[in-house]
């Protein structure tokens, strides 16, 4: 296939040829092409179908503002939907397919919507899918979902990597057109740290698309020279293919660098895209301007594009978008398109200029005081109908039409902090308003300086101003000579003639008629207009259509455009792939696991692990022949209670607390008293929040007069530490108390069961007999010479110790314990067995420590000392939290031992109707107790302490169980605690 | 956002944990103040559109609690102090 529309010139490398496919057809292009320029070079104008009406569409732009030419790029797992062909860089072997069309782009069945357009007006969804309500979920939603969206996801795992990066600079320059290059050059020469970012793969901005001279050379050559000078500066970082997508607080900008999008497959070790976080002291927005169309009947046919885009394809890519072109303009910039194309030898049929008077273009049919009122051509433009100044109409045949309705400065980023753009009458466009992101100024076309000279001048001036602000000195160099022509616009927003549809927002199929309907139905505010018609709500954020829509509304309401106002923009400036935001946080890296010191050993034993917060803990360790988890857990419980069991409890939070006020400090943060605790002893502590609810619990040991070791739950290790720092720094700043988290420093194991002491005595160097190391004792020990800590505490209710050694000895320790325990048939038990034994003992844990429960609810009300001030003490005395019929912790077991009960069940009186009013509380935790031979549970029951011995029902709609239960003491096993004192 | 830590210099706000109104420093004495006073302390807050003094914790850093004076409308940070210094200046001790 020849490149029939390729003309001379342009910044493409004709010495190399790329082959690529679109919808299965093979075409050729060159390095430097975009997919859109290459397709246009091959005479392909039809590239997509519109969202709602499935109208045939071609590109209207040559940049990131493109609403129409959206395609699937690549295939298989790398297929990416909604890629704008106008910015997709061509590479050899590129595969693209059309989207939102079936069975084919040329013959799209859904184009029937175009015939039914009178139904699909503004507010269509609101009006159509209202009744009956029963249809919302079952009928309407599936229909809408099937019809919605443009491209399709591959639904395969993305094989590429995405990265995140961080940059710091004095000055961030956004956009590398004449203004941005001049700003970067000024700042770079002054020695400032500069980041210059541009979304294009070639810096230069509009200079690449124009024939203007800058400093006596071609604009593109001047730009290349500046880029070369900047590239040689070590203080300047040039970032092409990098879009600044958002402005955040304090000079932080986010940027997406398309590192490998221009390659078929990323180079080894390179990410597909990188999300940058750029910290800047000052920033200059030099993002240029976007041309806007003029709406007229059937203005959306492939071949009709923005005049500046038509010119860009000719000048930058050597492509005539049509063999015979026309221009429709309301300003002088549009005339440049006609001049440039004619200079390139393209047949220019006419310039349809809505203005009257002024100079006529030489050698071109320049029709002043005229308007395009309609177009024809099924899958591409064939002709336009023009209303001439004399009132007659004329049909002018052409295959491309360039339309220019003026240029809108790209103010988007300046309104990311809700600054509202302001209207400038002389250029008929919005420019950045006040109150934009601090430290950000705009230069060049982005600030309304639409000439090349204006861009160079303001780029330099803003850079000098920014650097002066930072205390740096920058010199104003002589500016290169450049054109400084005014745009000479006479606003024309839409052609009033004609009854058909005239498109404003091509991506969302919003027409002048829709705006008129919104006006008729009184949705006249710009915010209502946007939401009612979906104007500007597509992936292009209305870059070409918004101002047009607002202007039409202004005309209808008889208000000025500034009085009508404008909607503002949010990040991102252009669409960002989810994978880019996720970066490397996928799969295992999304949430890395913390491994316990015995993990390696446990894995060798075939242990089953469970996620506990960030930790992986041993859940149970199956033995050969065990086929269900219950077999393993029952065995672990029975063996521990009968012989001895070992459990890794390293995950519990450990905090060292030291200082002369350490005891007094603990009295403040615990509801019970610690200052009276003897050295070498442990105590169970209950920590409240200031609102009186239980925050956390654990045992804290006094290792010395001014030295305590606090234990927290696994879940609250971080938040308790944060809370202690808060108490220490904000509430009692003069207390002599220092804290440090030692959770990671110690590998800690619980050794529980009748043989626990015998086992430990084999490896602990000191005497740990009951006399030397009594119940609730604590102390520093050595384990065959290795420093360690021993606590005689028990969660299981057995004779038990927790022994700690430095973490790096944790793996050796579990092996040593198992070796020493072999003669006692020691086993390792996991979190399931731990849960069984703590419920058998009535200890509270996660299900009970739910943030909504008081000490009184847990049966621990007496622990809250009123003799001293502690966090939560006062508010725990509130009347509502001390009702005699409030929730109390109870034990629960089924009347029939074979019956099952489930956590989350609600207590009901027998015979009471199963309804909310009968709700007496709920089961918080449930296990199977091998000792009692039945399910047992803990729960919060209203006035539970007065209902011991009573029979009730435990009802659970979720598990569909309804079991008769007996309310019992929460202490199921060894209620007197004889075993743990043994 | 960037918080200019009095000791560590400018740090990204992602390193911090936010708590809320810096008036939390003015905790009443539980042995003399009653439920009403504590209730007011714990639950009643101003919600200004403008300057706000608030507590931030440098959890991914040096564990300092800071009092940050921030404009809630513009996010401009006007002042950053060590919470310990503020607490002492407000008469808190042991």
Classify the fold: give the CATH topology of one domain in chain A: FAD/NAD(P)-binding domain
CATH architecture of chain B: 2-Layer Sandwich
Q: What's the rounded overall pLDDT mean of chain B? A: 97
Helix content of chain A: 10-25%
How far apart are the termini of chain B?
33 Å
Shape verdict of chain B: globular
Rg result of chain B: 14 Å
Query: Remind me, CATH topology of chain B?
Result: Folate-binding fold
Q: Kindly state the number of beta strands of chain B.
A: 6
Q: What's the gist of this structure?
A:
The complex is a heterodimer of chains A (about 1000) and B (about 90). Chain A is built from 21 helices and 50 strands.
Describe this entry's structure for a reader.
- The complex is a heterodimer of chains A (982) and B (94).
- Chain A is an alpha+beta fold.
- Among the domains of chain A are: 1-153, 2Fe-2S iron-sulphur cluster binding domain, sarcosine oxidase, alpha subunit, N-terminal domain (Ubiquitin-like (UB roll), Roll); 162-289 and 409-469, FAD/NAD(P)-binding domain (3-Layer(bba) Sandwich), CATH 3.50.50.60; 291-408 and 487-564, FAD/NAD(P)-binding domain (3-Layer(bba) Sandwich); 883-982, Beta Barrel (Elongation Factor Tu (Ef-tu), domain 3), CATH 2.40.30.
- In chain A, the strands form 13 sheets. In chain A, strands 8, 9, 12, 13, 14, 15 and 28 form a seven-stranded mixed β-sheet that branches. In chain A, strands 41-42-43-40-34-44 form a six-stranded mixed β-sheet.
- In chain A, α5 (178-189) runs parallel beside α6 and α16 (629-642) crosses α21.
- Chain B has 94 residues and is an alpha+beta fold.
- Chain B has one domain: Folate-binding fold, CATH 3.30.2270.10.
- Chain B is 17% helix and 35% strand.
- Chain B has two helices and six strands; from the N terminus they run βββαβββα.
- In chain B, the strands form two sheets. Chain B has a four-stranded antiparallel β-sheet with strand order 3-4-5-6. A two-stranded antiparallel sheet of chain B has the order 1-2.
- In chain B, β5 (65-71) and β6 form a beta hairpin.
- The longest helix of chain B has 9 residues, at 35-43.
- The termini of chain B are far apart.
- The chains are: A alpha+beta (982), B alpha+beta (94).
- Chains A and B meet through α18 of A and α1 and α2 of B.
């Amino acid at each position: 296939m020849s490149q029939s529309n390729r003309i001379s010139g342009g910044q493409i490398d004709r010495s190399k040829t790329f082959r690529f496919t679109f919808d299965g057809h093979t075409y050729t292009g060159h390095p430097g092409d975009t997919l859109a320029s290459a397709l246009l070079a091959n005479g392909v104008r039809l590239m997509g179908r519109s969202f709602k009406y499935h109208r045939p569409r071609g590109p209207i732009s040559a940049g990131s503002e493109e609403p129409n030419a959206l395609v699937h790029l690549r295939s298989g797992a790398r297929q990416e939907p909604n890629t704008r062909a106008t910015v997709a860089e061509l590479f050899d072997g590129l595969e693209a397919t059309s989207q939102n069309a079936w069975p084919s782009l040329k013959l799209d069945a859904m184009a029937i919507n175009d015939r039914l357009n009178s139904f699909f007006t503004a507010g269509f969804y609101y009006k159509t899918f209202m009744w009956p309500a029963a249809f919302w979920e079952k009928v309407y939603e599936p229909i809408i979902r099937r019809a919605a969206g443009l491209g399709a996801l591959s639904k395969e795992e993305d094989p590429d990597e995405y990265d995140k990066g961080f940059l710091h600079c004095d000055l961030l320059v956004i956009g590398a057109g004449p203004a941005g290059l001049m700003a970067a050059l000024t700042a770079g020469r002054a020695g400032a740290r500069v980041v210059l970012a541009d979304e294009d793969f070639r810096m230069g901005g509009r200079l690449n698309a124009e024939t203007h001279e800058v400093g006596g050379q071609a604009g593109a050559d001047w730009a290349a020279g500046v880029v070369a000078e900047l590239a040689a500066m070590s203080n300047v970082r040039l970032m092409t293919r990098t879009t600044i997508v958002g402005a955040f607080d304090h000079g932080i900008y986010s940027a997406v660098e398309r590192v490998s999008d221009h390659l078929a497959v990323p180079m080894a070790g390179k990410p597909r895209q990188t999300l940058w976080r750029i910290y800047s002291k000052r920033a200059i927005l030099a993002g240029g301007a976007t041309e806007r169309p003029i709406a007229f009947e059937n203005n959306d046919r492939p071949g009709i594009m923005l005049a500046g885009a038509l010119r860009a394809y000719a000048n930058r890519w050597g492509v005539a978008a049509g063999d015979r072109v026309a221009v429709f303009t309301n300003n002088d910039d549009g005339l440049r398109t006609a001049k440039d194309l004619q200079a390139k030898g393209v047949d220019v049929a006419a310039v349809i200029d809505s203005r009257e008077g002024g100079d006529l273009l030489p050698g071109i049919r320049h029709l002043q005081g005229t308007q395009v009122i309609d177009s024809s051509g099924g899958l591409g433009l064939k002709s336009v109908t023009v209303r001439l100044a004399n009132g007659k109409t004329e049909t002018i045949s052409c295959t491309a039409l360039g339309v220019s309705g003026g240029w809108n400065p790209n103010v988007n980023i300046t309104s990311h902090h809700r600054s509202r753009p302001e209207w400038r009458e002389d250029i008929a466009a919005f420019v950045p308003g006040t109150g934009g992101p601090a430290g950000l100024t705009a230069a060049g076309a982005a600030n309304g300086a639409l000439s090349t000279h204006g861009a160079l001048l303001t780029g330099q001036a803003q850079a000098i101003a920014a650097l002066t602000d930072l205390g740096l000195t920058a010199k104003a160099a002589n500016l290169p000579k450049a054109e400084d022509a005014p745009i000479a616009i006479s606003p024309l927003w839409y052609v009033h003639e004609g009854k058909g549809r005239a498109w404003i927002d091509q991506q969302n199929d919003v027409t002048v008629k829709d705006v008129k309907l919104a006006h008729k139905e009184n949705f006249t505010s710009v915010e209502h207009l946007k939401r009612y018609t979906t104007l500007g709500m597509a992936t292009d954020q209305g870059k070409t259509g918004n101002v047009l829509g607002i202007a039409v509304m202004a005309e209808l309401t008889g208000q000025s455009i500034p009085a009508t106002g404008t909607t503002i923009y949010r990040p991102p400036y252009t669409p960002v792939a989810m994978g880019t935001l996720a970066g490397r946080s996928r799969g295992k890296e999304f949430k890395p696991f913390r491994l316990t010191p015995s993990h390696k050993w446990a894995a060798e034993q075939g242990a089953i692990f469970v996620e506990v917060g960030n930790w992986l803990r041993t859940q149970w360790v199956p033995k050969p022949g065990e086929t269900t988890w219950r077999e393993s857990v029952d065995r672990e419980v029975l063996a521990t209670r009968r012989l001895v069991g070992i459990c890794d409890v390293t995950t519990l939070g450990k905090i060292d607390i030291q200082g002369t006020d350490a005891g007094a400090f603990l009295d403040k943060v615990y509801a019970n008293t610690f200052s009276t605790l003897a050295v070498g002893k442990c105590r169970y502590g209950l920590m409240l929040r200031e609102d009186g609810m239980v925050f956390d619990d654990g045992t804290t040991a006094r290792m010395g007069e001014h030295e305590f070791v606090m234990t927290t739950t696994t879940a609250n290790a971080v938040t308790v530490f944060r809370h202690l720092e808060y108490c220490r720094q904000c509430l009692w700043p003069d207390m002599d108390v220092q804290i440090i988290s030692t959770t990671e420093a110690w590998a800690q194991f619980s050794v529980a069961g009748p043989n626990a002491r015998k086992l430990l005595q084999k490896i602990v160097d000191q005497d740990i007999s009951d006399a030397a190391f009594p119940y609730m004792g604590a102390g520093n020990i050595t384990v065959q010479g290795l420093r360690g800590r021993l606590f005689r505490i028990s969660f299981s209710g057995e004779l038990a110790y927790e022994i700690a050694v430095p973490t790096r000895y944790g793996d050796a320790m579990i092996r040593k314990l198992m070796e020493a325990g072999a003669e006692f048939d020691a086993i390792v038990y996991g979190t399931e067995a731990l849960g069984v034994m703590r419920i058998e003992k009535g200890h509270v844990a996660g299900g009970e420590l739910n943030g909504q429960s008081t000490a009184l609810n847990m049966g621990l009300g007496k622990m809250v000392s009123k003799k001293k001030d502690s966090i939560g003490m006062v508010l725990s005395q509130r009347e509502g939290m001390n009702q005699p019929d409030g929730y109390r912790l109870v034990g629960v077991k089924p009347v029939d031992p074979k019956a099952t009960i489930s956590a989350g069940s609600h207590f009901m009186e027998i015979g009471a109707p199963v309804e909310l009013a009968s709700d007496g509380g709920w089961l918080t935790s449930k296990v199977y107790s091998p000792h009692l031979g039945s399910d047992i549970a803990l729960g919060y029951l209203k006035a539970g302490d007065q209902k011991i011995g009573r029979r009730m029902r435990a009802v659970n709609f979720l598990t569909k169980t309804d079991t008769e239960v007996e309310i019992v003491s929460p202490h199921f096993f060894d209620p007197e605690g004889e075993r743990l004192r043994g | 956002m960037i918080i200019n830590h009095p000791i560590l210099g400018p740090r990204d706000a992602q390193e911090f944990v936010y708590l809320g109104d810096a008036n939390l420093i003015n905790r009443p004495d539980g042995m003399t103040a009653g439920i009403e006073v504590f209730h007011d302390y714990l639950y009643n807050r101003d919600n200004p559109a403008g300057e706000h003094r608030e507590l931030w914790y440098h959890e991914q850093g040096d564990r300092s609690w800071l009092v940050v004076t921030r404009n809630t409308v513009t996010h401009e940070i006007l002042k950053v102090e060590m919470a310990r210094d503020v607490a002492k200046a407000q008469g808190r001790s042991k």
